[in-house]
């Protein structure tokens, strides 16, 4: 029987709630699709930090490295200075594990309410490939004259051919198994130096993908096109900062933060990939059972694709989206069932195979380029 070693990092707030629901779904996936997982729970987050003063240590990195994938909930707490846990754990993990690609699908599944008037599932099916290791997020810069009216802050954006090329190459490969369209999203008219590098990489890598059609959109224009005409896009490749911003807008199109999933992929084979809903720890609703577990379950589906369990990935996608489509609201009391009850409902559909397969399954496409 196939066996996968998974590290589980539930984290803070609603993180443990949605992760528990996702693990219930994983139990059902294992029985239905004949594989098993060994699961190690790793207690990173606010409690661990406040008790021990520890963020991501070398020891934890080595422990995680010995696993086939990481399932992550969310991190962040009002009890800790903003940024300490987020930088010290999430960004540190992405860097330590060389998770070069942040993969964020923006797909509106049938029956899921969207705040964008008139938007239909046929018009909203794109994937954002975000470079995940550099740009403005390298934490390089300096300040002088701090605390005086002459204070100067320099915050640098780093763009290497190496990192941009691996993001762009991945994006081309994904476009090739989808609708064959790749859009570069940047701000080449103002960030001229970085823009030249990204454009040159697009052209260079594109020589190997003559069948993929490319275009270019400025990031500000992207914020206008995304809600109005998302059908323009198939795969979008972009830098770390722009990707962070446009994918929150993307999450809105697909029904909100509770629904959106992501993967942080190591594609060099020298580190462990990590899968997480894109929402945070939601302290405003934590402890009430009001968090939607769909984002966590779709992240689980992406993880299964990465582990080579393509059928299970598509199965979890079908069951999750079937349950989503029947919900009276996507968050809060109005969902009509708690986080864990929804996890059990998804697991139930998966176990009896009664959810209709998703047409043009996103997880099947992703599995083709994501499998380890
Ligand atoms: P958030 O994503 O936690 O919450 C934003 C809003 O979305 C809140 O109203 C929340 O109730 C709602 N929401 C979030 N997840 C939901 C779900 N599953 N179902 C239904 N509604 C949901 O972002 P916020 O409030 O800005 O940040 C809270 C904490 O999380 C902060 O410490 C922040 O730094 C951290 N954070 C962590 C992330 C991670 O672990 N990857 C990502 C984003 C934020
Ligand atoms: Mg973000």
TrEMBL record:
Keywords: Manganese, Metal-binding, NAD, Oxidoreductase
Domain of life: Bacteria
Every Isopropylmalate dehydrogenase-like domain range: 5-346
Record flagged with keyword Nucleus: no
Needed co-factor(s): Mn(2+); Mg(2+)
EC number in record: 1.1.1.85
Pfam families: Iso_dh (PF00180)
Iron found in the keyword field: no
Enzymatic class: oxidoreductase
Annotated PROSITE patterns: IDH_IMDH
A GO term for molecular function: magnesium ion binding
PANTHER family assigned: D-MALATE DEHYDROGENASE [DECARBOXYLATING]
Protein name as annotated: 3-isopropylmalate dehydrogenase
Organism this protein belongs to: Ornithinimicrobium avium
